[in-house]
Amino acid sequence: MFIINCPYCGEREQSEFKAGGEAHIVRPKQPTELSDDQWAEYLFMRKNIKGIQFERWVHTHGCRKWFNVVRDTSNDVIEAVYKMGEKPPTK
Amino acid sequence: MKNKYSIFSLIKNAFSYHENWEKAWKDPEPKKEYDAIIVGGGGHGLATAYYLAKKHNMKNIAVVEKGWIGGGNTGRNTTIIRSNYLWDASAGLYDHALKIWEGLSQELNYNVMFSQRGVMNLAHNLQDVRDLKRRTHANRLNGIDAVYLNTEQVKKFCPIINTSPDIRYPVLGGTLQKRAGTARHDAVAWGYARGADQMGVDIIQNCEVKSIKRNGDSVEGIETTKGYIKTNKIGVVAAGHSSVIANMAGLKLPLESKPLQALVSEPVKPIIDTVVMSNAVHAYVSQSDKGELVIGAGTDDYVSYSQKGSHDIVEGTLNAILELYPIFSRMRMLRQWGGIVDICPDASPIISKTSIKGLYFNCGWGTGGFKATPGSGDLFAHTIANDEPHKLNAAFNINRFVSGDLVDEHGAAAVAH
Q: Measured between alpha carbons, how far is B176 from B123 in angstroms, rounded to an integer?
């Protein structure tokens, strides 16, 4: 249970949002060229980090826009929030 | 077996006011080298060590646990045991476990309080009814006891359920597995620990794995908070922290770790003598021998290792509980907690070799690992000892995420994950 600062609506309770998992997983440019191993990597394998994780969230019960969050998964403290298409913060 | 627990040992120890019972397991320091090391001292890890020693004659083995044994998800689950899974592979796996449960207290000489009080799964809409009937047929084809109940039969089996057609999600029917039930989760860890210890397994607590040493494509040992330990077989049974250990070895797993919550009420007189689970409204309830209602909620949808979940999840579960059991409306909840569960994309576990020689993973049990504890330990021990899976866990290999041969129990397995 935590507060998320939606880049469009401001601070709202986490229950208004839906988590979209790990961010910056790029969809393969040429899916027909992919091997089974590469498909498995893209579809299923996840870093599942304990610590600082870059992830996607959507404000389902609000503006319904997607954005990125940098969150420490060991204590649920949010370090940064940035819009889709923006560069992730380096520190 | 030395110091067998019996009525005679109970009487004998009564004379010394029960102050001279010997320790159920030793608390040794790690040796320099083991034939195999199990990472994680929960039920599954301890069972793995127990069966490695008992069935595969591997005595020079250790279980390393970063906290205390049974202090993780083993002590955090809602203790439900059942095997009414849809797919053949799952039915084989979970019923193998259920068969071991049936004789486990005798085998371990430790009362795990296994109680076959039945598990009932409710249907709340037409699709549920169809799914549950299909699963009942699939179960019976696999030799698993299952019956479909209509609303009146549900009411008869558990009279406190509100079967009024006027509630938001009315009870349209349900399935019942009579061999299913509950067990005391702590006792399972303690019983396996005692059994393994008696066969010479070192159970090392407060010993966290810091890194895994590799030599090319095989493992050489582990660096821990109690120093370096040499071994060429490592079985990882770290539940929510499986990905953390995998990262140490340079592996990536198809897992996401999420909080799963449960809560218990104040103790009351016996009111519900079975386990009732509802997939559609996601609430399940049973009553412990102490009289507490044991209530399970769903997972949060985000990755977290914080061992606490969101309040809205608990609220949603209690809303459902109150609608199904209006009699509980004035019960007070005593404790609420979260555990971190590792969920696979197909909601089935991984009991498998990996691309690294000597490194084995038993993970991905998600929200339903407790029921499989004995079977999981037995099959994982087989996999480690023979470097080959048993036929019952062959389908649960890690390679299924590459081949696409998934065991898709999401929504099929009588409860949503």
A: 11
Is B316 near chain A, with CB under 8 Å? Answer: no
Note the pLDDT of residue A1.
Answer: 79
| CATH number reported for the structural domain that contains residue A49 in this entry | 3.30.2270.10
Closest among B343, B339, B385, B269 to B73, alpha carbons compared? B339
Which chain A residues are within 8 Å of B354, Cβ to Cβ?
none
Question: What tens digit of pLDDT does each residue of B171-230 get?
Answer: 999 999 999 999 999 999 999 999 999 999 999 999 999 999 999 999 999 999 999 999
Q: Is B310 on the interface with A (CB under 8 A)?
A: yes
Q: Is residue A88 part of a domain?
A: no
Q: What is the ipTM of this complex?
A: 0.95
Q: Is residue A89 part of a domain?
A: no
Half-sphere exposure of B23 (CA within 13 A, CB side): 7
The pTM assigned to this predicted structure is 0.95
The answer to the question of residue A91 being in a domain is no
pLDDT for the residue B280: 87
CA nearest neighbour of B397 among A48, A40, A42: A40
**What's the structural domain count of chain A?**
1
For position B411, what pLDDT does the model report?
A: 60
Q: Do A1 and B311 touch (CB under 8 A)?
A: yes
Task: Answer yes or no: is pLDDT of B353 > 60.
Answer: yes
Amino acid at B308: K
Output the pLDDT for position B16.
Answer: 95
Separation of alpha carbons B256 and B364, rounded Å: 9
Expressed as residue numbers, the domain containing A55 is 3-83
Question: How big is chain A, counted in residues?
Answer: 91
Residue B99's nearest CA partner among B389, B379, B353, B388 is B379
Q: Which residues contact B106 (CB under 8 A, 6 or more apart)?
A: none
Is residue B336 within 8 angstroms of chain A, CB to CB? no
- Say how many C-beta atoms besides its own lie within 10 A of residue B6's C-beta: 10
Interface of A with B in 59-88 (CB under 8 A): 71, 73-76
Residues 6+ apart with CB under 8 A from B145: B139, B177, B178, B179
What is the C-alpha separation between B57 and B119, in angstroms, rounded? 36
- Encoded tokens for B322: 């109150």
pLDDT surpassing 60 at residue A76:
yes
The confidence score (pLDDT) of residue B417 equals 47
